[in-house]
Structures are given as C-alpha cells and as structure tokens.
Write a structure and sequence with these properties.
2 domains; 11 helices; DNA polymerase, domain 1; six-stranded parallel β-sheet
Length: about 240
Amino acid sequence: MAIRAVVWDVDDTLFDYTTADREGMRAHLVAEGLLDGYGSAERALARWREITEAQWARFAAGEVDFVTQRRDRTRVFLGRDLTDAEADGWFERYLAHYEAAWALFPDVLPVLDALAGSHRHAVLSNSSVTVQDHKLRVLGLHHRFEAVLCAAEIGVSKPEAGAFLAACDALGLPPHEVAYVGDHPEIDGRGAAEAGLLSVWIDRGGARAAAVPPAGLRRIATLAELPALLAPDTRFGAPSTFG
C-alpha cells in the first residue's frame, strides 16, 4: 500500500533544537549573571536538560499541566521558591534567547519541497500546540502542514499508540498509509512502528550508529533519503545510505 502522508516530529527532526537550546541557555545565563555558578555552560545545560526530562515525565503522566511543569523546571533549576509570576518571567527571558537561536536543519526545505506534490503532511509533537504552532510560524513552515497535533491537547504522548493514531485520524488515513519521521528511536521510532505506521528514524550524524534500532523502523542519516524510502515499491526493502 502506498504511503500517502508524512507526519513529522519537530524538535531535532525539522528544527535544530539541540543547538538552539545550548546557545539560548548560554546567552540567558550570561545575561542573568548565573553562568559562573554552574562552572560552565555545558554543566548548566546538562542540569537544565535533566530537570526538563523529569518535569516533562510528570506532565506526560498527567500529574501536572503544561504551564506548571515549565514553572517547576525553573524553580528546580534555580533552587528557589519562586512565585508563578517570577518563574514565568525567568522562563520568558530564557525563551527570548532560545528563539534567537532557532534554525531549521539544511535538509528540511528541500525534502518538503520534493514531497509537496506527492504527500500530505502533518506534525505530531510531545509538546503543546501553543509552543509548536508559534515555532512553525517563526520558522516559516506552518503553512506546509494540514494539522499540528501535540500531547498537551490530545491528552496522550508518544510513544503511546494513541498519539500516532490521533495523527492518522486527523488526516483521515489508516496507519499503514502514513509515515512518521522522528529523531528518537524509542519515543518516535518504536512508537510509530507499534502503531502500524511506516516508522522512519532520522539519525543525524550517526550518533547512535552502533545501536540496534527497535524492530519495525527504518533508519536514515539525512532527510534526502526520505523520498526514495516513501516510493511505493520501497517500503519493505529500500536500502538506506546510512553508514
């Protein structure tokens, strides 16, 4: 069966989140006079990401809402009992530095152009529509997607099958006619495969080349490989140029 639509992850798939996060946090800590307290920007960022992961897990489990997890990330990172307004203010200042570093990966626009006439497109992210809708507009991509679905609104997060099936429902297509492209082999790759989609793992730079990918997904090194992978006769056998 031909693949008729592609559903995309955003962060570290279309958008270079890792670089923006690093450069944004570095600039923010310098502006706030906090960099020396962490020894280095790398240590600070490692701590920020550790806290972000823990707080996002609380949100994904339904323990807190999206705004609360964001405030709690700030409170834990600073080690201070901030009011909601103080936490919001600090986070908004961080966001300004973070957004200044936003950029697409260079292979994104070429592949979206290549697939524009042959496939429908949507987004599925473990974030909120408020965040990703704004991001896609700033990056000039929003008009390319029929739907933008996020965990905060649909009430289920990747890798749960319900998240991927919600994207298929939004497109009005069965899972076997939809491909999902994401950067995480478990959250994106395994989740999409188990939901019945064609699962494509974008492993930029081969950072995980030694890892054995979960069953049922295809690994690519660049989005330039995607059009050939989506061709009707390649779903189960197209070789990747990875490695």
